[in-house]
Design goal:
Aspartate Aminotransferase, domain 2; 4-stranded mixed beta sheet; 37% helix; 3-stranded parallel beta sheet; alpha/beta; 16 strands; Aspartate Aminotransferase, domain 1
């Protein structure tokens, strides 16, 4: 069993993928070719944002967003410790300090109710992460930001395609960022990412930053990076787009099958009723995680832990986060376990995973409710 079945996904779109790749090989415009603009226009339409700027990775998207907003040395950026390291990494690379706020124990997303207490005169931005495919509490976070005149950058690396109160992830705040890493719900065959905004000035700045700060060839009006997404990778995402909504439906089917088969005995990360999840991962909360993992591994079932050590406890970040108190993130880091997930996961696969999982955890302790109110 594959943790994420990219081979079946390729077979489903093989002809279109091959044709798209061949078209790039034929025209030879490997950097900033016509597929780049075509993809940006398609993704802008999909999210409803005015602008889409494709970039070299999801990490690059976060970095460019912060650079465009002028975040630098001595500034603070509020974010979550329960995320992939890239969210905090880009803050530190710019000389700013990540300020970690604890997470909601049900959703694992940034706890909006705790943010305001961490705002200081040095705060320059807030970065919530839409973890596991479900947007964070963006309206509440945006409200805190508005009271303090702060921009919000949604780290939507795992949530492209999800809805939040009728709007798409990526179009929920000042800037939205996503990733097209191969394992993401919408992935390419290498690294890639995108920025979304409806702010014309920010879009212009981010477009310049991704090409070394150029406003025109060899005229560098700002400090930038080499952050372009390759034409070939844009072509691959374009080839995957026609099946993307169907794949999201299949992820929903797989998640519903998991929930039904687990029968309330194992608690998945909570889903709020006013938003959807694209289930970048199907993550559950278990006791004795290592023993459960071993049982699944012995049955040939792959698992992953997203994430075993909160960012504020990572060796490289400990000195920067002295005093950060995030007990919920610490607790969840010891208990979360991600199961195989994807649009090509069969009901038979899910039955097999759940049978082994339930045997491993025991059937005596009912799990918490699976769906949370808005």
């Amino acid at each position: 069993m594959e943790f994420i079945d990219l081979k079946s996904q390729y077979q489903a779109s093989r002809d279109l993928l091959n044709a798209r790749i061949q078209a790039v090989l034929d025209h030879g415009q490997y950097i900033m070719g016509p597929e780049v603009r075509e993809l940006e226009e398609a993704l802008a339409r999909y999210t409803g944002a005015r602008h889409c700027i494709t970039v070299a990775s999801g990490t690059e998207a976060l970095l460019i967003a912060l650079m465009a907003l002028g975040v630098g040395r001595g500034d603070e950026v509020i974010t979550t410790p329960f995320t992939f390291i890239a969210t905090a990494e880009v803050i530190v690379l710019l000389g700013a300090t990540p300020v970690f706020v604890d997470v909601d124990p049900a959703t694992c997303n940034l706890d909006a109710a705790q943010i305001e207490a961490h705002v200081t005169p040095r705060t320059r931005a807030i970065i919530p992460v839409s973890l596991f495919g479900q947007p964070a509490d963006m309206d509440e976070i945006n409200a805190v930001a508005a009271r303090h005149g702060l921009p919000v950058i949604e780290d939507g690396a795992q949530s492209f395609g999800a809805f939040y109160r009728g709007r798409r992830s990526g179009n929920l705040s000042t800037v939205g960022c996503t990733s097209f890493f191969p394992s993401k719900p919408l992935g390419c065959y290498g690294d890639g990412g995108a920025l979304f905004t409806s702010d014309d000035d920010l879009a212009g700045a981010m477009r310049e930053i991704r090409v070394h700060g150029q406003s025109q060839r060899y005229v560098h009006t700002r400090v930038g990076v080499g952050g372009r997404m390759d034409t070939l990778q844009c072509a691959i995402v374009l080839a995957k787009l026609p099946l993307f909504d169907w794949e999201l439906q299949q992820r929903q089917r797989a998640a519903a099958s998991y929930a039904a088969r687990l029968g309330g005995q194992v608690r998945p990360v909570g889903r709020r009723t006013d938003r959807s999840s694209v289930y970048a991962q199907y993550t559950v909360v278990v006791e004795q995680r290592e023993a459960v993992q071993r049982a699944l591994q012995a049955a040939g079932i792959p698992t992953a832990v997203h994430y075993p050590v909160p960012v504020h406890l990572q060796p490289a970040y400990a000195a920067l986060s002295a005093g950060a108190d995030c007990p919920t993130a610490r607790l969840l880091a010891d208990k979360v376990l991600s199961l195989p997930m994807g649009p090509y996961l069969t009901d038979a696969d899910i039955d097999r995973v759940c049978t082994v999982l339930l045997d491993a955890v025991g059937r005596d302790t009912p799990a918490d409710a699976l769906v949370l109110p808005a």
